Amino acid sequence: MSVQIDLRQMILAIASAVDLVGVDDVLHGRRVAILAVQCARELGLDQDVRNLLFNAGLLHDIGVSSTRVHRSIIDEADWEDSKIHSEQGSRLLAASPQLAVLAPIVLAHHTHWDELQKRKIDPRLALYANLVFLADRVDAEAAPHYADNSLLLHVEAICSRINRNRGGLFAPEVVDAFLRAARAEAFWLILDPMFIPQFVREMESYSDKQEMELDDLKKFASIIAEVVDAKSHFTYEHSTGVARLARFIAEHFGVAGERLDLVEVAALMHDIGKLQIPDEVLESPHRLVRWEKAIMKRHSFATYQILNKVRGMEELARWASQHHESLDGSGYPFRTIGADLCLEARIIKVADVYQALAQDRPYRKPLAPAGILSILRQMQARHKVDSLLVDFVAEHQDGCHRAALSLPADEVLASSVYESVLQ
What we know:
Radius of gyration: 23 Å
Number of domains: 2
Distance between the termini: 41 Å
Number of helices: 23
CATH topology of the largest domain: Hypothetical protein af1432
CATH architecture of the largest domain: Orthogonal Bundle
Structural class: mainly alpha
CATH class of the largest domain: Mainly Alpha
Number of strands: 2
Strand content: under 5%
Helix content: 55-70%
Low-confidence stretches: 414-423
Largest sheet: 2 strands, antiparallel
């Protein structure tokens, strides 16, 4: 079964999600990709290799979900735990037939050049990985100077620091290519947010358009879900649990065939925007203050913006991003009223609420099915959720709980009294 979704745009969507972890700087992946391509041109590498390096640059940090980890990676050239995110990223990419070619590059993109020479690795892949490593460190060096437009004043110092690591961190030929390319002001000016989209469009035009099969789309969505859920141990398997429960509910309401699979895909990706929430806010053990609530309210809009850019996913973008809307129009981010909330969006909202309540959170313990139903009934009374869906949950408490938490069929469900939860 084929869906009209362009692989190139889906890769950019994943890259946008990964870059959200930068919080205030959401262009790191794109800049690394651009820097890698420019150095590759200087090395005389052909367009196919440049396309490969562009995608590797976009997704090199796919193994990073935590804002704390991201800060360490940017701030420290030789961070001791850098191999963890490289290994995680490589594993995620290897799970997709379309992205597996990037896995060995991402795996080695923090490995020193002198160390790579000791390993049994394809010399070409070693060079590509090292090129991404250099591009990553160049962007980290340049990052403090983007905001005040002073980057050109620091080019000489950046080049000098990179050159000092020739033969150690970086391959001599990669350093030489960088130094030659860096002489042109355009090499640096293209990193301005105003000009980055044009470079991305040009790179898109160099790659063949490929329509994704539905199974491949589900693999991509599962990768995104795993990245999002890894952000905190409190959200472990949240997206996959929401997807299982949404599918379970949707089947009983007549959603079938490809549309049923797409509900699952939208649910897997509903929390993409949470990657931009600082760890300290997401894991706060206290009731959120106003500014923290305002930060939290950004995530579903970010989900919409990322998914809506992919042609063919406009409908899924609405389903995924409306999981905090309410029938009475009091939800966010669009204040959509019930008449404009389709069944799929209503299902994902209920599945999201249920699964979140069934999981441990920093401010409360997981709730048993009866406690979750009680809260859903309260939301129903205030016209926040669909009554028919809450009735379904009431009639299928065991099935909903098992779907939400992936429990075995013979496991006895707890019936402990639930604790209060922040609304």
